[in-house]
């Protein structure tokens, strides 16, 4: 985790546009200015982390219940609660 965060800080500080594919929503929320969410190869959402990462969106796209909080600096963070129950499991 330490090296992952160090790398994200380095990327943030180079002052260039960077396209990053990451599945860690908390990491994306902390370091990305704008997010694109894909599901089954299709764009299903885009926006700033604050606008996009809502409990409803996370449940719809990722199939989990989540609580979204806000750090003192305004950065959203996600606490995953439970997996959504599927009818045909």
TrEMBL record:
Keywords: ATP-binding, Nucleotide-binding
Source organism of this protein record: Subdoligranulum variabile
MF terms in GO: ATP binding
Top-level taxonomic group: Bacteria
SUPFAM superfamilies: P-loop containing nucleoside triphosphate hydrolases
Gene3D superfamilies: P-loop containing nucleotide triphosphate hydrolases (3.40.50.300)
Protein name according to UniProt: ABC transporter ATP-binding protein
Alphabetical list of InterPro entries matching this protein: P-loop_NTPase (IPR027417)
